[in-house]
Amino acid sequence: METPDYKDYVQCTSRDLICDPLFQQWVIAPTAEADAFWGELVRRYPATQQPMEEAQQLLTSLSFRIDEPGDEIANSSFNQVAAQLGWLAGDREPVAAPVRSIRRRMWWSAVAAAAVVAIMLLLVNRQSDADREKVAHQTSYGSKKQVTLPDGSVVVLNAHSTIEYPENWEGQPVREVRLTGEGYFQVTRQFVAGTKTPQAFKVQTDNLVVEVLGTSFDIRERRGITEVVLETGKIALHFNNPSHQAITMKPGDRVVYDPARQQPARDTANAKDFSAWKHNKLILKDPNVGEIIRYLEDNYGKKIILEDPRMAERAITGPIYYDNLNDALFILSTVLNTQVIKQDSIIVLRPRN
Amino acid sequence: MPDQTAPYFDPNDPVSYRTLYVHYYKKLYNYGRKFTTDHVLIEDSIQDIFLDYWNKQDRIDQPAALNSFLFTAFRYSLFRKMQRAQRQLPLTDQADEPAFYASAFFTRDNTPEELAEKIRLAMESLTPRQREALFLRFYEALSYEEIADIMHITVKASYKLMARSLLQLKQALTSAAWWWLVTALVEARKNS
């Protein structure tokens, strides 16, 4: 790397620094050498301190979602590759293996396919004998959890929710999940092992079944009312009440279903907003204070009482950011100009005079 | 930041092959998930490029060159598979270049909320290629030369692409700070 010159940076602005590869390098992977250089620059030319801080703040504000699989998945993938290359577990050195022709590779895939079919048959037989092992994840009030399903699909469970599914989906025609509460789903496309038939994904709730072929969506089932919002892809809703027809949803659609009322209602919603709870942002569609309070009660398991019930009708627009219940209560009490009085599991919002 | 150091690779040590594979499997899978949720396609692409790589006689074993080679080969293989899968769907007659998701970006927890929201919006306003360049530079810590290689552009173009993305972000950040100041002033006047 070329040695930087202090003089080049005397007049620098934060714009210059943001785009400067050496400055970036220091932010990405600081070394003692780089620390010394940038430290010395500020000492010699104090005017560079402010632009440096600004540039640093911008560059460090960038961060990324991490989707790294675990060691186990990576190792089993390696085993498949090693098998195709004809390296048998440990007893032959990989380098000793001659260059394999395409034909050889195909032969190996045929063996692999045959093995998959055999295992499939075994599993199908086993399944009819005994019930499969079930896995369950549960979140308590005020907590969230991200769960990776056996097929790599991801579910983010909101507070006070449960998800249950079989430990292993291989060889089954359908991937089935049972949900109570609220979950955001990102479903991967899968094929039934050894075939080109897509493996269906179904989420069962008390009121309905969501059928999926690779997509992301949010299901919220609270107090007997189910809301489904589709972000991407295509899903079909099958209602447990046979008198309702199935509904096919497009991205951006929202379906609200209250079994106590008659028909499911369909409108549009901003799917990103609907699932904003994943980032601790609360965005309900044109909410009033009453709806926000119900949402907080569902997720934190507390009773929230408005001493002035008229406040429940007040509309609030825009996102409410919160890290925890106290944050949310603080925001509400500021907007409504109330005190927050806590008594065990009851919270009272009392108007200030 | 992830672990940036590639494992030491010794072609005469069988264990080395597994270590190398596991290291890159995680990295490439993570990269692939920024373009698609279809993990079958990602898995196939990774297996394919390693099969090709280990089937070659004159292999690149030098770590820096290997890193760039694997990223380039993976991106090419994944894009081809995605485009082929897209063409099989009814109602699409042309396959677009896969797009890097805007949702792959997060802001750090300690970023003030108004600012985080502005950065999120700015991310959505960037082109997928701009987002990808930022990811390769600030997550994978790759050099401009490597990024140019992987994204099939000249080194000069990679500097331009990065600068444009960063300055667009800076603009969003500055206007957010300004907006915050104005709101604070209005609030202060209301209360006085």
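qc> Chain A has four domains: 6-60, 71-129, 134-273, 281-351.
qc> done
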